[in-house]
Task: structure prediction
Amino acid sequence: MINASDRAGDAVIECRNLWKIFGSRADEAMQAVKTHGLSKTEIRDQFDCVVGVQDASFSVAEGEIFCIMGLSGSGKSTLIRHVNRLIEPTSGEMFIEGNDINGLGAAALRELRATKIGMVFQNMALLPHRNVRDNVAFALEVRGISKDERFAIADRALESVELDGWNDRYPDELSGGMQQRVGLARAIAADPHILLMDEPFSALDPLIRRQLQDQFMQLAAEMRKTTLFITHDLDEAIRIGDRIAIMKDGALVQIGTPEEIVTEPADEYVSDFVAGISKLNLVTAQKVMEPIDAYEGRMGPVNQSNCPVADLHDSLDSLVDASIDSDQPIVVRSDGKNVGVVTKRALLRGIQGRMHEDDDVLQRQQTQQASEDERELSRG
Amino acid sequence: MAKKSTEFDFLDPFQSLNIPIAGWADGIKEWAISNRENIQPIKNQLNWMINHIEDGLQAVPPVIMLVIVGLLAWQMAGRRVAIIVLACLICMGLLDPRAWGLAMTTLSIVVTSVILCTIIGVPLGILAGKNNIFQTSMRPVLDTMQTIPAFVYLVPVVLLVGIGNVSGVLVTIIFALPPIVRLTALGIRQVNPSVVEAARAFGATPGQILVKVELPLATPTIMAGLNQTIMMSLSMVVIASMIAVKGFGNEVLRAMGRLDAGKAIVGGLGIVIIAIVLDRMSQGLGQSERERGHRHWWQGGPVGVVLRAIGKDTSH
Result:
């Protein structure tokens, strides 16, 4: 997996070869997997066991927001529950700040959960018999922190999610979005290093979801907490995540930055997902440009004076802005040097997300003239 | 055990094959008689408890008792129930000059039984709610306790502890214990598992989860069980009167012997009225917080009135 080993030094969460098999014969099935490499269907048929997580490895660096994206049943909620050991793994290791949590005793594990890890749940899971302040103070209460102190902390946490004034209300008096903000306040009240977010915004309607995403990103930027964020919505993952892992049938099929996921999908499954995603703000000039040497070899020297200019890291959106009033290709510059050229064709294909499709076409066109190229484009 | 000396018959094997259960039961009887001394301390403790409760109830003048019960009903179940309860109790007092005293005697047996049922039943219910094996093994025991005719265990209990209030309470417990066990288990099992998971995720110990999450959320169901237990223990008072328990049940029993319809109706109505009073009051406890509009118990009823009157903030 990408970066699993070279990030190990500063990784806050590190998961190595984690397996979870559900069923009464899980250990036998695990043995069989290790010795014979059985597939999921074979495990189901021979041992009547279900594979929840299949050989998952990833690491999350300090302050990073790491999204795990997958459809329902892909095992993402199972995987996140291994991070605070709400679920025991069948095999594999989970390190939190360098400590293997699967070796912790019950008391040490509770201490870890209460102090280091905050969790937000899809269905809020607030305590209905306690008011909002008591809910938020729960993690502090179980640690035996005095009433005055924990209430003061809870009130501050509620302020940070803009729910001050609701402290004495009960969860069922709040709307779904407000309940989830209470859930978020509860997770951050104990000032944990790590936030686990299990589809926190999935149960909310789109507008409220968007608001909460914005609020969360603002909070995340202030707090810089290491976050593991589960979602079934790729748009959400791209909006929020520094890196994204795509999960399918219990296995992580690709880990990368949003741009990597969108521009270099590892397989058909991922590319199906990213097909509908807007590339405008994700893909940069670097991905769609043709190196300056190749372009000049094909077309002759670039006349830079009447070409629009862009930076290597400009998004497609700004490339569109740059080229909209010009017929000339865009010259991409980096450190004061021309490094590449983005033709209109490459830009449009880039927006479509099909930038590598024309590679062989380009080969054939190497000898053709620029005018023909333009005509071809208008037809296609 | 009359074992017929017939040959074994395939078509009617039960004539020659029998489990000697009646013999075993007789054995239990022998064991009970030989162990009477050992249970005397327990008997004395129970007797002490029943007597004190009864003395306490009898010592309070009826009018004061009316006020106490009225306030209690108001606190537990609201003003409307308090009025119904008071009306019922006044009617009962008017039935017969002796009715009030008989009611207190009956009440003392019921109260003792219910306290003991709660002490025994709630922990058993929690265990059954948490542990499937325990739940499965408890079920036939509870079924037996609830359905076996009282006359079957009346005799062994009397042989073991003799007649009187203590055996009356024991017999009542056998009959009235199952609902509170069952409903406590049900209440624990009905708690939303995601809430329990959240409590675990924030580092709560199993004990904290039980006390801070599961029991509060199961309380309405447990209270419904308590209500059933109260009703069932009240329905045992007539049967318990056969082993010399005093009170309304004894009135009914004696009236039956003498074909005295008047006395029978006094006893019968008395039991009904106590049943209504206890039922309405205990149902108030079964309301969930949400139904009460998220008020703490001290924010309503007479306590709330007093607190507001002395100017204490009851909002939190």
About this structure: Residues 99-130 of chain B form the longest helix (32 residues). The mean pLDDT of chain B is 89. Chain B touches chain A at residues 192, 194-195, 197-205, 208, 212-213, 216-217, 289-290, 294, 315-316 (CB under 8 Å).
